Amino acid sequence: MVNRKNTVCLPTHSQKRIPTYVVRKEEARALAEEVEALQKQLFVLQETRNSGDIQFTEAKNQTLRDFIFRQQLALASTSTMLFNHISSQTENPIKMHIHLPKQWTARRETLVGLKETKFRQCRDYLEARCHNLDMTKDHLSENQYEDADGNFRYQRFDVTRFQGKSLKQVYDALVFFMFNMEISISETLGDITVRDDYDTIDDDAYISNHRLVSKHDGVTTEANAATFAQNCNGLGSSSCAMVATDSIDEDDLHPYSLSEFVRRDVSAAVMLSEEKSRDSSEEDEEVEVVMRRAAFMKIYSPSFDVADNTLATMHERIAQWPKIMLQIVREMIETP
């Protein structure tokens, strides 16, 4: 049988600490070697024993179970390495630095100038994130953690399909939520959420600069963000729509008040497209709307005292926002 080792021995240096990713890499290598040894053991059993022998069958099954278990351990170790890498990043992949000046004309020019770059950035990320995914099925993954600066971070990615609905129906419901979310959030979570629309541009696309202020349990959070929404052409002859939101880093006209409020940032991307339904036949080209969505949220560590329970509740509530959006969109498109 294979000699299993529960620990991996690495050279130690009294002067230098071995990085975590090096340890994880060595653990993954050791697990891969053990998997290879188990495969060889299975081969030997198959060659030397009669397949009708009960003992052989039991040994074979146990070896297969060990093989699968070692593969799962290797995958778990790799997942940890990936999560450690993601959680060590200082910025999210769809974040753009946005600085809005005081003058209204210059503010508008800045937002309009960012629109195409923002859409392209979000589209590229969502397409890469969906690479090799089965788009005929729904998907959901989420992570939350505290970064090196004590800020709370929440990340969510999902794929949702809407059968029997048009792209325009889903897009209109999505835009309605994005530009009226304070109502839904207040009603669902019980928070007092107020929206200040600093500016709204409506030409070939919706562009909005707004501030959301939410109060819960005596603590007020604020978010200053820009939202972009537009119908656009997708790949080939299919149609698509994009909605993107990003936080404002610097606002000369409306600066953050960190001594009074807890800052909350959000970068989000939503892409709608029409795809062939998995239930449709070659003769019946029925389409469905597929929504790809990614959200990166951040609650800054407060610069004033906040009770631990209040902070924990704040973290739980921000994770509800993407769920509320999906709930409202579904309710709107199902309403006759």
Describe the structure concisely:
The chain is α+β, with helices and mostly antiparallel strands and 336 residues long.
Would you mind describing this structure in some detail?
Keywords: Coiled coil. Residues 21-48 form a coiled coil. Helix 1 runs antiparallel to helix 2 (54-87), helix 4 (167-178) crosses helix 7 and helix 5 (181-189) packs across helix 7. The chain is built from 7 helices and 10 strands. It has helices at residues 20-48, 54-87, 104-129, 167-178, 181-189, 308-318, 321-334, and strands at 99-100, 139-146, 152-163, 192-202, 206-216, 219-233, 239-247, 250-251, 262-276, 287-299. A hairpin with a 5-residue loop joins strand 6 (219-233) and strand 7. The protein has 2 domains: 20-87; 99-334, START domain (Alpha-D-Glucose-1,6-Bisphosphate, Chain A, domain 4, 2-Layer Sandwich), CATH 3.30.530.20. The protein starts with 19 loop residues before the first helix and ends with a helix. Helix content is 40%, strand content 29%. The strands form 2 sheets. Strands 2, 3, 4, 5, 6, 7, 9 and 10 form an 8-stranded mixed β-sheet that branches. It has a two-stranded parallel sheet with strand order 1-8. With 336 residues, the protein is α+β, with helices and mostly antiparallel strands. The longest helix has 34 residues, at 54-87.
